[in-house]
Design brief:
By secondary structure, this protein is of the alpha/beta class. The chain contains 13 helices and 13 strands. The chain has two domains: 192 residues, Glycogen Phosphorylase B (Rossmann fold), CATH 3.40.50.2000; 152 residues, 3-Layer(aba) Sandwich (Rossmann fold), CATH 3.40.50.2000.
Length: 383
Amino acid sequence: MPATYGFLSTYPPTQCGLATFNAALASHLTAGSGGSGVVRLLADDAAGGGLPLDRMAPRVVHTWRTDTPGGWVAATNALNRFDVAIVQHEYGIYPGDAGEEVLPLLRALKVPTIVVLHTVLSSPDPMQRSVLERIVATAHAVVTMTDTARQRLIGGYRVEPRKVAVIPHGAASHSSAPRPHHDRPHLLTWGLLGPGKGIEWALRALALLQDKEPTPTYTVAGRTHPNVLAHHGDAYRESLRALADELAVADSVAWDDVYHDQATLSRLIRSADVVLLPYDSTEQVTSGVLIEAVGADVPVVATEFPHAVELLADGPGLLVPHQDPEAMAAAIRHVLAAPNVAGLSGLAGGPTLRWPAVAARYQALASRLRAERAPVAAAKLPA
């Protein structure tokens, strides 16, 4: 009989990459087998109106309202009804200092537990370090999505290396049809918008391409991040619009303030000649946007954040220094001049990085953990 899985995470219709990741993993891992379910993390200020659930995705069996003290108790009870618990971890989604309220939940779980780490900081503060070390100590296994994150974890934290597995972020299957033709080269960045996204550097690179004939267009797709919107309004987007005006590129920029479902996102990605990832962060060890871009066979120009360095070092794209619009513009010129040159497109690893293969690796890990615990459970039975 197939194992049942309890997932703990944010979840659609919440608008965030973590929710989208968890829904995709849950859908492919359970594959309509039934019996699995999701414990959804929900803050009072969470933005709804996002993506509807795929009909194959597990349903929500309990909601942990993270603004309510002690919510971990009921969440634990819900997760203990399943054979395996898969817990997504990101700073900022759990209550307490550095999200420490996930710890009593992990200690109280009676089933094999896999914690998926979406962020591993290179310079955590003392509380962030302590919480993450205790998460690894309590979980039966933890997953990082890149070798970079694993090396950072086992080299910079006191953890048991044997517990740490690398399973890549899954990529959706995109149409294999030729990309649509358009009169002007199309540049694209997408994802929730906020400071640190680096769009200002992409706009400056676009301004340096105004001598190209025809001049490129640039689409910035995605809603403003709900946390940014709640605390700062749409000031970042408005500052970008003002910069585009100042650089005289406003007519070449489309602001697509929409949270796309997978079908429309796939069409948007496939319409691009180059995906730009101009991120400011030097900490980002996992990027779903990056994996989707290369999975769609679209060349990428990205700053040197850790996941991009690992995935693009051998192709399929070009790396540029952070906050360097001249280097970014030169890389875009290179890609547009030779879009089909070897090493500029194609998902490294091919089918092994598609969601079905990624889900199979989680299934294998869960099966191993259940097998390891079976003798322990049998030994506790009365004679």
